[in-house]
Write a structure and sequence with these properties.
By secondary structure, the chain is α+β, with helices and mostly antiparallel strands. Helix content is 22%, strand content 40%. It has one domain: Thiol Ester Dehydrase, Chain A, CATH 3.10.129.10. The radius of gyration is 15 Å and the shape is globular.
Length: 141
């Protein structure tokens, strides 16, 4: 895995990712088979119960999977994902999403993402997704 590792690809993808930028998502760490992101829950992210909207937590975890799997020449696209919401998340909470490879087989990668809250790393959601690489060069590569 390390020989093909190109974190610059994920950083370039982030620079073009208006959705992640719009949610205030920041890349904290990239490593082979891993990405760590951070996002602060703002007032605009709250649902009617005044907790973080589940769809936005899903988008946060999905972004972590995307940056973990897109550190190689061929682009990886999500083909399946699910999330378990374990605890409600309140406004101003700083979240960390840590995506790690659980398994790889051919062009398919299974990724686990832990979404944790605050400095005590309270587990608030677990996400598992699958990506498939497409054997093609990235634009501009």
């Amino acid at each position: 895995m390390d020989a093909d590792y190109r974190p610059d690809i994920a950083r370039d993808m982030y620079d073009k990712d208006k959705a992640s930028q719009g949610l205030g998502i920041r890349i904290m760490e990239l490593a082979p088979g891993k990405a760590v992101l951070e996002m602060k829950v703002t007032n605009e992210m709250l649902n009617g119960l005044q907790t973080a909207h589940g769809g936005l937590l899903f988008a946060f975890a999905d972004a972590a999977m995307a940056f973990a799997t897109n550190q190689r020449e061929n682009p990886a696209f999500a083909i399946h994902a699910e999330i378990d919401f374990l605890k409600p998340v309140l406004r101003d909470t700083v979240l960390t999403a840590t995506a790690t490879f659980a398994a790889e087989a051919g062009r398919t990668t299974v990724v686990d993402v832990r979404v944790e809250a605050g400095l005590d790393h309270d587990l608030v959601a677990m996400f598992r997704g699958r990506t498939r690489t497409v054997p093609s060069k990235r634009p501009g590569a």
